[in-house]
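Notes, p. 3: input format for complexes.
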Amino acid sequence: MNAQELTRIASMLVADDKGLLAMDERNGTCNKRFAKLGIPQTEEFRRSYRELIITTPALNESISGVILYDETIRQHKKDGTSFIKVLTANGIIPGIKVDIGAKTMAGHPGEKITEGLDGLRDRLAEYSQIGARFAKWRAVIAIGSDIPSRGCIEANASALARYASLCQEAGLVPIVEPEVLMDGEHTLERCSQVTEEVLRAVFNQFYVQRVILEGMILKPNMVLPGLSCLKQEGVNEVAIATVKCLLRAVPAAVPGIAFLSGGQPYEEASARLNAMNVRFKARLPWALAFSFARAIQQPALEIWCGEEANLVPAQKALYHRACCNRAARRGQYNASMEKK
Ligand code: 13P
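Output follows (340 residues plus 1,3-dihydroxyacetonephosphate):
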């Protein structure tokens, strides 16, 4: 394992105010999103959609890396060029989702534990050989009246550390995603408390299991009130609560924090990231970036709708969201960028 190389890749992923584009939806999730728009749920449609994404002109202006899925990393453009080749030729670093999903946790009603450690060393070696340079694992933490439990937090933190350490052994940068979900009636304060507790557990495990902090990227949720909470704070309050929480729990050695969007409306995701960078960028130890799936892809998917004729406008919409989020990294995003 080469710590210097891991550090170099991790830094490249958040360099130049760029961010990550997650396009690693499992087939089930991708099919569900297709079904809502009447798009046929076949391998060929999933392939065409992913080809649309990676061939978007000038995507590399704002996107440093994309997260692929096992099906996608092996796919090719219609002309036979592999997706990996298209990405690397454009200076976009390919990554791969390596967990196999969050499953019901035994003895913990309403909670989940992410699986995928068995055989992971061999899968990482194969992905690295195909061309991946980083790998993502998502843990899911729900907030409810008696949850999250300590057991759920510790089990997920431990699995994240085992995965991260195996990634680094294989020369892949771990993108560590402990997602505290937005669903529920909880307040912003409660989300902050839970997020802090989860992050502290994750970094404790990373210390115990010898994960190299300089060679990883954290992919957390923003600190938000639950979707059904009556009090919905504004952009600045969210930005302040999020940065405050991260400052308490994320070591300064971590080079970058790339948020998930988690189902936030895409304009809000950009505005909140922007507000964090406007207020805090100059005095933070890590870069505050993005690793969005829905908040970059959704408008493009809705325009494409499975029709070849919509390819160009869909790519324009994708490019636009990527640009908005790069502007948010610089603290230069504003609502007028959304005017058609
Ligand atoms: P969203 O940005 O749509 O939450 O997806 C990010 C992701 O990679 C989830 O694992």
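The chain has a mean pLDDT of 98.
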